[in-house]
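User: Mind C-alpha cell order:
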Amino acid sequence: MDLGINGKTAMVVGGSKGIGREVAKLLAADGAQVAIVARTQAPIDTAVNAITESGGSAIGVAADMSTEAGITAAIAAISEQLGPPLIAVTQADHHVRGTFEEITRAEDYVDSYRTYTLSQVFLLRALLPAMKDAGWGRYVHIGSVTAKEPQSTPPHTVANATRPSTIGLLKSVADEYAAFGITINTVAPGWIGTDTTKWYLRKYEGLHTDEQRRTFLMERAGIPVGRLGDPAEIASTIGYLCSDLAGYLTGQYITVDGGLHRAAF
C-alpha cells in the first residue's frame, strides 16, 4: 500500500528501539526521510544504519525529548538537514510503579505530567507552524492503554492519574488544527513484546517461558489473544495514520491491545 509520504520528513521519537524502530523502518520503506530521535547515540546509529543499508533515508539525532530545550534543538537539527518534519511520531517514558499507598512522593505525579503532557505541548508548538504552512501534517502519539482504563496489573497509579491529560490535550489540538489538513491521533498499545516488557515479566512476575507468559496474559492480565503483541503490529497502525489516506481520521484514541479493553465503545 502506497502511504503517499514519499519525500516527506518524518520525525520518530524513540525510533532507536521497540515500536519506534519498527515505525521508522516502515516509514522509510515507503519513501519518507526519517529522523530517528532518542537519548543514546549507539542505538540511534544502529537503527539508522539498518535503514540506510536497506536503501532508505535516515538520520539520527540524540536529544532529551522530555525537555523544551531538547525538543527545540532536535527539530532545528532535523529541519536543517531534511526540512521541517510534516510527520511526527512521539512517545514518552516515565515509570513509577506502585499503588496509591506505595507512592508517597507527591512530585512523582508532577514529574509524570511534565514527561507525558508538557512534552507534547512543547512538541506541538515546535511542529505545528510548518505543518500549517504546508497545509498537511500527521502527528501520532504512542500512548498507553492506562489513559482510558486504569491498570492495576501492574500497579501504575501515577500513570493512571496523569496519562489521560495527554489525550485531552491532543484531542483539543486535533479539533483546532483539523481545518489545516493536520491530523492528530493517539495509538495505545497494550502488552507489547519489547525488551522492556519481557524484562518486566521476568523481574516482577517471574515469567521466563512462552507458556508462563501466555497463562499470565490470559488469566491475570485479561488479554483474549493470550500473547504479547509484536511491535510491527503497532507500527502498521501508526503507518496508516501517518499516510495521505488517513486524512479523515483525527482526534482519535486507538487501542491495539489484543482485546484487553472490554468496553464496546
User: Anything to note?
Assistant: The chain has two domains: 9-190+231-255, 195-228.
